[in-house]
């Protein structure tokens, strides 16, 4: 083999090696972006106040004959936070209201939070008596997450239902979550 052939082969192999590194870097970036997206959504869930005071918003009415009575146990079938799905819950309160899925811009800055579950009618400033319609623009009076209280929001959907305040121990371990607000009736099941 002559020198020109050896150089050509070496250059060809170098080009292949660089191309493979470029693909690998692209894959790393893609993997990192996916990882960041997952950690951002986990971060947003981790910003939630897992435990609450047990205080209820003014005007919230207790439910008559709720499916899950206060003091009873149920299994949570929701992923609002890490370790929630499948956890055993103790019902601390049952209330009749309208639960909303909302999107809002935190008062602390950052990206818009889309499809947050749940804000109830009584946690919306100047909500009035009637349930709000999809697309309504509102001001929040709830502190489930940092930057929520006072934030401008849009109602994505409205669900007249019974909402529950619950205590539960996350399936991932850790301390018991006390007075979590809110889980809807459809997100609970009997043991």
Key features of this structure:
32% strand, SH3 type barrels, elongated, 191 residues, single chain, 2 domains, eight-stranded antiparallel beta sheet, alpha+beta
Distance between the termini: 77 Å
Work out the oligomeric state of the chains in this entry: single chain
Number of domains as seen in the coordinates: 2
What CATH calls the topology of the largest domain is: SH3 type barrels
Sequence stretches where pLDDT stays below 50 over 5 or more residues? 23-46
**Which whole number gives the mean pLDDT?**
83
What is the number of strand segments? Answer: 8
What about the largest sheet?
8 strands, antiparallel
Spatial shape: elongated
Number of helices: 1
Helix content: 10-25%
State which percent range the strand residues make up: 25-35%
Q: Would you identify the CATH architecture of the largest domain?
A: Roll
What is this structure's SSE topology?
Blueprint: H1 3-46, E1 61-62, E2 73-76, E3 88-104, E4 113-120, E5 137-139, E6 152-168, E7 177-184, E8 188-189
Antiparallel strand pairs: 1-3, 2-3, 2-8, 3-4, 3-6, 5-6, 6-7
